[in-house]
Amino acid sequence: MARGIEIRDAHFPDRAPIDAYGNGGFRFADMSHRGSLLCLPSGIYGWAPDEADPLAPASFERVLAEAGDIEVLLVGTGTDIRMLPAPLRQVLKAHAIMADPMSTGAAVRTYNVMLAEARAVAAALIAV
């Protein structure tokens, strides 16, 4: 019986600093990923937020599933800083997560520093 190609969700099962970003993706742990990322306590995941509304609460379900292990969520909003919409701010606050929106580049740099400090940090990074 022939098996077709198996497509799995992109997942790196550990925490790692982001080595580079740009050209629509990221480099970390001697690997590269095209597209957006969620960097969570359980690992780094490929992330496909809703293109029409990438900051919709539904795009952050995986973050909320790990809420007890996250104090700060850095949200890399692309090349420009965008305020988080009220519904997203409210759902994160209800889960005791402080969210900090910034450009993706600033979010990557801040994530790396906080990760090195062993802080309870996560990042949602929209690819640039």
Automatic annotation (TrEMBL):
Q: What is the lineage of its organism?
A: Bacteria, Pseudomonadati, Pseudomonadota, Alphaproteobacteria, Hyphomicrobiales
Source species, please? Pararhizobium mangrovi
Sections of the chain in a coiled coil: none
Q: Which SUPFAM superfamilies match?
A: MTH938-like
Q: Name one Pfam family in it.
A: DUF498
Q: What is this protein called?
A: Mth938-like domain-containing protein
